[in-house]
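Question: Hello, beginner here. Any chance you could explain the protein record under this note? Any guidance would be welcome.
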Amino acid sequence: MAAAVDAAENLLGKNEKIDSGKINAFLKAGGVDLNAAATAWCAGFVNSSLAQMGVRGSGSNVATSFSNWGIRVNPQEVARGDVLVQSRGRAVGQTGGHVGFATGQVRFRGGRQELEMLSGNSADEVRKSWVNAGQVLIRRATEGISVPADQLKSASQAFAPPQGGDRTVKAREEKKAFDELYATNQKRLDQQREENQINADWTLTADQKALAIAKQAEAQKLYDPAKEQGLTIDDRLRSQIDAQATAMARAGLAADKLKDSTGDLATKQKKAADAYAELNQAFAEGIKSGITGFINDMRNGVSAGEAFANMLKRPDLPFTPDTVTSRFAVFSYHCVRLAATGRIFSRLGTTQGRGIGCHRLAERNLQAQCR
């Protein structure tokens, strides 16, 4: 329910201590009657956001009430508008949990998936935060409802300034905040209903539905300023808006696909780089182990060619001989050249001349082995 997140984002940054009037107005617009400054309101925030968009919530002000609400969704399929529940070990109906909306943003940190959550009563305000996907329940709405008109009417009356006497500034501000919020959410509710009709049309493909929904949103952006300027929406203007909205919707969807494909490519490139780094690390460890055995064989009088062959047969190497012969051959060849200077085999206890003679013979054997 992306529209519910859109509505909730209107209060982003609002704090229960200094913006309680606006928060309470938002809650009451969805039939939730509580004082945010005195009561935990994260569940009420989600319930109100859903109700304002025509979706039935859990009906409870306890966060864990959403643990068995709707249907469960896998982290890989999370979408904007899904409900995220942090039960924190509590059972359904127990207090102490937290609940909010998935914004649709996903990231990976340290090999784990994280979801961006928009929630109320988070550090006393409406804000966004990142949560571990493995530590939340992801639920999705399955039943749409129409918000009872009398429910919204009673909320409006609750914010009406008192008749007679002084009308306080606070009462006027709260009434104004509610009226603006009601008008905005009523528009979103109408858009959501149209979107639901498009999604319910089984004759359309998924791409056609996406285009129709995007076109609807773009057209609304053009109709609103036209109405505000008092323009007459005749057939000619309607045709122009329709054509431009279609073009903008197609361009937007194309940009989204390009962004997704670019993200997929970046992910694949990162995985390839990580695999290559892991391969190099394992190869380096294999070289270290193999060279140690190579040197020990040479100390024991084994020819360079045989020592090299033994090195490739070591069971602790993570590769087959065929895949690493060229690398080991080059590396071992340089080791033998270093040995000729006495840097390695000076520890064998031989004279320098005898050592160099042995190393030259070993070098010839190794060169033959490398061919």
